[in-house]
Amino acid sequence: MLKIEHLKKRYKTGPWVLKDISFEVPDGEIVGLIGPSGAGKSTMIRCVNRLIDPSEGNIQLDGVNLSNLSSSKVREQRRHIGMIFQEYALVERLSVMENVLSGRLGYLPFWRSFLRRYPEKDIDNAFEYLDRVGLIDHANKRADELSGGQRQRVGIARALAQDPRLLLVDEPTASLDPKTSRQIMRLIQSICREKSLSAIINIHDVPLAMQFVDRIIGLQGGEVVFDGKPDELTEDVLTRIYGDEDWTDVKAEDDDLGIDQENDQESEEAA
Amino acid sequence: MRTWERPHYLVPDKRWRIALWIAFFLYLIVGIGSIEVNWLRVYEGLERGGRFVEGFLNPNFTRRAADIYSGIYESLTMTVTSTVVGILLSIPFGMGAARNISPKPIYLFCRSFIAVSRSMQEVIVAIFLVALFGFGAFAGFLTLTYATIGFLGKLLAEEIEEIDKKQLEAIASTGASWLQRMHIAIWPQVMPRMIGLSFYRFDINFRESAVIGIVGAGGIGATLNTSIDRYEYDSAGAVLILIILIVLACEYLSGWIRKWVS
Amino acid sequence: MGELEQKLVWESHTKRKAWIVWGFWFAITLLTIYCWVEMNEDTIWFFVYDAPVQAADLIDRMFPPEWLYINKLYKALWDTLNIATLGTLLGVILAFPVAFLAARNTTPSTKFVRPVALFIIASSRSINSLIWALLLVTILGPGILAGIIAIGLRSIGFVAKLLYESIEEINTTSVEAIESTGASRFQTINYAIIPQILPAFLGIMIFRWDINIRESTILGLVGAGGIGLFLSSSMNILAWPQVTLIILVILATVIVSEYLSAKVRRLLI
Question: What stretches pass through the bilayer (chain B) (predicted)?
Fold first, then answer.
């Protein structure tokens, strides 16, 4: 169970990126975080695993308060939180298997990871996850030999290798074509169901979100403006989240082509 | 239960990898074994090493102030003249050494001139030029000019060989003369990079001017050599710090000018 | 009207720029002339005019080279190779941590550690290996150990500078991803940073080795071992045919090392 209370964030003396955010995610629930560029979605999930330090507020995962841990304790907690990235964020010059096993780094002492002496159980599990995402034959390829969709699958396997209690997913489909996007979302959904994992998914593609998540939180200007079931997401609500023109554009394009040209803007926001 | 071993992409075959490591360690053993060290001498030297560190941290600019001043001054004048003359001369040599625009005999001559200049250390060249032209800055000037021609000439030749052939042909087809073609088609394409490289070479020439003084070719090297020979490490430290500061200033200045040019 | 005005403004702007450019060239010309005059204050022009005659005389004495002298040079060549190779290894080992301390994205502190690392790099880059050798020979005594350390000290700055630039250019999201698995600082370096910089690192190392071969040929002039020792002793006794041969051997060594390093670097990329 993830519990976020009065989370606030500002960068140095800049404006508040997150203004007083509170919500809870029960085990097994998949939450879609939607909102326009600059709404603070990326900052939001990076606060959870402390890639970004929150300015105020509490974040509790299974009773442990993450927001004020020392850096060594943060590492200990991070290993329970799997993260999947927009640009896959694999280490391209390492093999697929090393990328998956890197999910175990938080559990191993330096010398073992340096010599690639992983426990047999880790290796067995890694093979199992690779099998689960359909890449068992690619284990010893270099990550840069794979296609975009395959790389994202490796990213998923890496997150699974952490044996996580929570998945943070940052724009998993922004760099993928529509068909692969759906496959990736379906994969994330079914994995969360199997392991009754909770997940927070940043996603700009509203129809895709509605199809695969249990609950949607709409962020606008660093505030929660909607929190409810996907089917409660009416046009009114979307206008509140995206403003007048934006969301209709998004929806129209998606209906026609399934291709979202906002991708580039979104990735800029993430950067 | 499956096993996994990290794949190696550079040398995939394990036997080769092991053989290469063994060769490497054998070399290390033999190589390090070939170092003859007189430990007693090293032990005696440690005290001097300590004094050098001390001198470097606590430099003495005053004892040899006159020598240091005239040495740095000479180094700088040598650097300026040799860089300017070297750049001017590297243009004909560089163009002559570009395969696509010069006739074969000229190409071969310029290429070999550049190749020899690049393979010869400045110090060796300086020794010869001192023998011919006498001690002093003039021999140093010639040395640095010669080295500059080799350095810039090669890069210029490569730049020219890489430029867009179509542009060259387009301008040739308008009936432009050889000089016009050079001016219009080639110069604009290679100019920006050459300016940057010229500043870089200025920097190198200054550093080298400190070295060739050791063999009598003028500049700060002579002062440095004397103070080290007499174990005056605080004066040597002062010279080294001046060299470092001037090199840093050159780098800063060239970065600033390059930004300004572009 | 607006168009005309714009044109006028544009012209005056380019005119001003043209003046600056001309002023720049004029200043350089003046500076060069001034430096030329100052530099040649002590030049004895008689020697300069006489140089062609001296050159002809010298060439006459230098040829033919004393080919058989090569038999005495093998050991010196081996020493030269060792100075360059071991010196490169030493420099690389020392440069590696310095580069990580100097790179903006890996340094523990931009305020204190980074300036120190940058100062180490600048000092090492500004001072030629021959000067380091000169110093080390007075400290450690003559021999190849001084040469190795001189080459090592000079290589630190070169390798660390290129290396820290490539560290600053790495893909940061991979680093973020590895950090988010709970990896420690060293694990992150090992898994996310080193794989990304490894090709650049090997290239830089081989490039520096090539330069070091060149530099180690002359370290003997100040007593730091290698073939330069023979060069200076032959020159001291005015044995010019030997000098010719030594210079030919140095040229050959430099060309072979350049060929080898180019070949290996192409193999790696």
Answer: 20-40, 83-102, 123-149, 236-257
